[in-house]
Amino acid sequence: MTVLPDLLAGLEFSTLPQQLVNGILLGAIYALIALGYTMVYGVLKLINFAHGEVFMLGAYTALFTSWSFGFTQAGNKQDSSPGILILMLIVSMTVCGIVGVLIERFAYRPMRSQPRIASLITAIGISLLLQYGGQLFLPSSPPPSISDKVNPFKGNIEIPLKPADSALLAQAEQLKAKVTRTKAAYDEQLKSEKDSFNLSPVGKELRTASQDAERDYRNAIDKANKDALVITFPQGQVIMLVTTVVLMIILTWLVMKTTAGRAMRAASLDFDAASLMGINVNTVIAFTFFIGSALAGAGAMMNASFLGGTKIDTFFGMLPGVKAFVAAVLGGIGNIPGAVLGGILMGLAETMVIWAGYGNYKDAIAFIVLIVVLLVKPGGLLGSNKVEKV
Amino acid sequence: MNIQFSWKHGLIALAVAAAIGCNGGDSTATTPTVENKGTEATPAAAGRKAPTAEGNKVEGDVIKVGIVGSLTGDQKPWGEDSVEGAKMAVEELNAAGGINGKKVELNTGDSTSKAEGAKTAAEKLISDGVIGIIGEVASGHTIQIAKSAFDKGVPVVAIGATKTDLTQEGTHVSRVCYIDDFQGPVMAKFAYEELGLRKVALMTDNKQPYSQYLSKTFGDKFKALGGTIVKEAFYESGQTQFSGQITELKAETPDGLFLSGYFTEVGPIAQQVRQAGLKDVKLMGGDGWDSPQLLTSGGDAILGSFFCNHYNNKEDRPAVKTFLDAYKKGHAGKEPGTTMAALGYDATKLMLEALKKAKSLDSKSLIEAINETENFAGVSGTITLKGFNGNPPKRALVVEVRPQSEGFQVFRKAYEADEIK
């Protein structure tokens, strides 16, 4: 019975608050994509496997938009503005929305009267078509990425929960003088050296002295900070989270308060009855695809520009797509709050596993959570328990 | 350097996922996976088999030599550069009169950045009658070429394949680059002695045996020197958020971070490391960083980091200058973008020099002559294969990442083969 204490002893509780924050930030993106899966499923009872590829196209749209503003690899444009980011977001959302509607119109609608498995296979076909066909006309060799210059929010917000040991900090500051002194001596010597990696013996000695002093100083600072607790929010990711929340609020309003939303809910309840009541089912479905795909576009744009340097290729949407799909199932597919909950839980599960020291198994454990949830509650956390055949 | 993308049963995985309604665990099956870069540290020792097949003979007045490169797909920059380098070597030889009055003809095969493609291309070249094959850059591709060539008794000179046990395929395989057992220790030595680092954290790409092995060789040497590896964090190719891993590393207050993966993930990691507040931590890596794309994916965050490479355009050696002058003449004044042009040139020239010394113009004599190579003066350094089982002791260069205006990778320090261990 010593396993549990051993396990707990290995945990570093000082990083827990930060990891919880990381998990929520990560989960927000999953949630955004999961909404697309869940909305389409809610209305059509179809799992839109091409959703991840819509996400991929959203990232490419954001990339091309950024290029059109001069943020290319060769370009040396340095300053961006929030306006450019908002424009990139709107363009990505619009393009993805239209792509979603087109996929529905030309791939799924002709299949609608066929058995559901036919639509499902079509969805897989569209997914593969975009992944491999996309390589013909989208730049992917080598994979490009959005310039880090696009994102003007590169700093971070630090929230100190517990201050550093001021006595130790003061002690550390005393070492600073030595750092400055030895560094000055080394810099002086450097002037007479060929370069900093082929030093004369004297230069080497001075460099070692400077490095030692700096190390002592840094170690002292680290020691003072040992019990301090600071949560760091990268600005870009905070913006991602805020945007995600805003989009979700808009979505809830759209679904719950508008006529289109009511029509959508009616169609998801009973397709035929809704059309008998005078609802144009085709419009409702197109609308659903537009909204779901636009959300994926927003997620893709934010993922590709705020997490700077992320490589974009035609398989960009696969991993997030799969994880978001799992999130949707976890929350109860067809259920909108469920998708958000599932997304956040997936994000948290992933970072918690890393926090516990099992980073090697992070995906495995996230999926084990899924299996357990589905065994206990087959409909997902917020879903109905009615068994659905897919 | 070696990436091999294998889209394993992607369709099947998806179909299965569809059939059971919910499945996500198979995501790995369809994402690019890099195989190879051996995980076992088998120092290529003796016991190499010699191919028994007769090989090809030169017929007529033209000597056919083949090169396999990734002319399409993800590794296009490396493939193109290596073929350009090979063309230069052949043209120079032909301009100087060829071999015994016979001209050399370079036949090109496209591996399409895939192992299967490399195999097909090699077999096509062999059936076309080439007496030797140059290539590839990626170890995973080169292994396929080596296997096909073994059956036909044709020699292979690899360009950038660093997988340690590659040359165990047979006596017909040799290379012109260093091996993975070398570059990890080089970076460890540089980090400890030149940068003065003592507490280094590792970040390893768990999907890439190359990265796993490089992290291991780096860590072992760094510890042997007296440093501490405070933590190793794992991620996977294709991952975009690294905040979880970075938070764990940050808690250990490292002064250096060794990123053994490929540039596609290293860039975003560098940016997120800086955003997480680790401003002063030095970043380092292996030859998987060698792509100008690193500057876009890493942005300002990657500048001032160091990695290990085979060769550098800015090296102060006459051979490099001669090579660059000749290269620029044929390429509108442009310098090669990656190191693979120089290595491709070296591999080709080594084979052609061996051909001059071969007893007769056939594959079998060529294999013998290649293995007898001693003190061949290549652009990337002197290459000796005799007595080294196809793995020449090579020098490694540590370069610093600088803005494109300064030439992306700026040469900092060279390590000779005997300086390590």
The biggest beta sheet of chain B is recorded as: 7 strands, mixed
Q: How many strands appear in the DSSP assignment of chain A?
A: 2
Report Rg of chain B: 21 Å
Q: Give a quick account of the main beta sheet of chain A: strands, pairing sense, barrel closure.
A: 2 strands, antiparallel
CATH class label of the largest domain in chain B? Alpha Beta
In CATH, the topology of the largest domain in chain A is named ABC transporter involved in vitamin B12 uptake, BtuC
Helix content of chain A: 55-70%
The first-level CATH class name of the largest domain in chain A: Mainly Alpha
The overall average pLDDT of chain B, rounded, is: 84
Strand content of chain A: under 5%
Classification by helices and strands of chain A? mainly alpha
The N- and C-terminal alpha carbons of chain B lie at a distance of: 22 Å
- In one word, what is the shape of chain B? elongated
Number of domain units of chain A: 2
Unreliable residue stretches of chain B: 2-45
Instruction: Give the CATH topology of the largest domain in chain B.
Output: Rossmann fold
* Rounded mean pLDDT score of chain A: 86
**Element-by-element helix/strand order of chain B:** HHEHEHEHEEHEHEHEHEHEHHHEEEE
Helix content of chain B: 25-40%
